[in-house]
Design brief:
The protein has 79 residues and is mainly alpha-helical. Helices cover 59% and strands 10% of the residues. The protein has one domain (3-78): Orthogonal Bundle (Arc Repressor Mutant, subunit A), CATH 1.10.10.10. It contains 4 helices and 3 strands; from the N terminus they run αβααβαβ. The chain has a 3-stranded antiparallel sheet. The model has no long low-confidence stretch (mean pLDDT 81).
Length: 79
């Protein structure tokens, strides 16, 4: 894997961890905060955000509470 790809992956993980450190957040909220705080320069769509959240959860870095509602409205992430 090229170094720039690895840095992007690690940066995305750290960015998400920093957002869920203070309190639980829904996946949709995480994506909107990233977009807002970056002035629209960085966007996470469900196709890339949720696999990343699953990886973080699998590592034990976050805990997810998954509901049966739509992903954008029902998924919550806890630290």
């Amino acid at each position: 894997m090229p170094p720039e790809v690895e840095w992007k992956k690690v940066s995305a993980e750290l960015l998400i961890l920093s957002l869920v450190e203070a309190r639980p957040r829904h996946g949709y909220e995480i994506s909107k905060l990233i977009e807002q705080r970056s002035g629209g320069a960085v966007r996470f769509y469900a196709a890339s955000l949720y696999p990343l959240l699953y990886r973080l959860e699998k590592r034990g870095w976050i805990r997810g509470r998954w509901s049966k509602r739509a992903a954008s409205a029902g998924d919550a992430i806890t630290n």
